[in-house]
Amino acid sequence: MRRVVFTGPPPVQILDVAGPLEVFASAPGYETVLGSPSGGNVLETNRGVSLTGAVPLGELSGPIDTLVIVGGTGAECGSYDASFLAWIADAAKRSRRVASICTGAFMLAAAGLLDGRNAVTHWAFCDRLTQEFPQVRVNPDPIFLRDGPVYTSAGITAGIDLCLALVEEDNGHAVALDVARRLVMFLVRPGGQAQFSHSLSHQALTSQPLRELQVWILEHLREDLTVERLADRIGMSARHFTRVCLRETGMNPGQFVDRMRVESAQRMINSSAMGLKEIADACGFLSADAMRRTFLRVIGITAGEYASRFTRNGNGIRESETGQSV
What we know:
Radius of gyration: 21 Å
Number of strands: 11
CATH class of the largest domain: Alpha Beta
Helix content: 40-55%
Largest sheet: 7 strands, mixed
Number of domains: 2
Structural class: alpha/beta
Order of helices and strands: EHEEEEEHHEHEHEEEHHHHHHHHH
Distance between the termini: 37 Å
Oligomer: single chain
């Protein structure tokens, strides 16, 4: 069982804890633990609700798979408890990976875990994080990002997206999608999606058949998704389906599929160690070069440029097996 420890300086933002914890609790193979910095068996939240069953931090010994530091009023006050920061630094050494939810990034920064790393937090606190910790490379745009074994996320519900990505990293897309369905989440959002970007047009579909088709497409990205096949899937003629798709999404069926493939590739770039050629194959692009052209057309940059902005590895940019930037 992978042990996932959630803690933060009280009072914590209740959704920073509850949402991400539910993601791991809904996936197979995880043991979730609440850590209490106060030494008692409760974790106080910002809404006057005490989360019981917590374990005093002093009793949390041994290896940790995923250490999650959550935000809230306690993390935003500008005063950091030295003993708690020391515990975070020590626990991080015992953890396979470390993550922050929302303003929990301030605690990671204060503990020295974000020095020289890319990080994000709630958009309203990005400037302050930059000013208070100039050694941190703050990127205010994405909803979550990874730099080595350290993951940071934007405001509140972005923590759920991050934890879904971590589940996908461990167990694959099918398991993450199943968890998202259980939580009645419409989509697993890619980390590079902008904080200020509300749901893309196809995420606010009013047509139930199209919403159901979207989920089906996500599960069949590697297949030949022609207009005729998609139309047949929801019982429409190709011409009528094209009209409905344009009306609901502002995109024709081909553009709709391209957008979904790009978003899936973004998610894989953000949360996996796969190379771009592997990602291109997994998302149904005919080749890495085809993915490159589609990225450029859909979001204005190539997949390689996207990877260099939102991931970090020894080469700085992922390359195809031919050695060319994708």
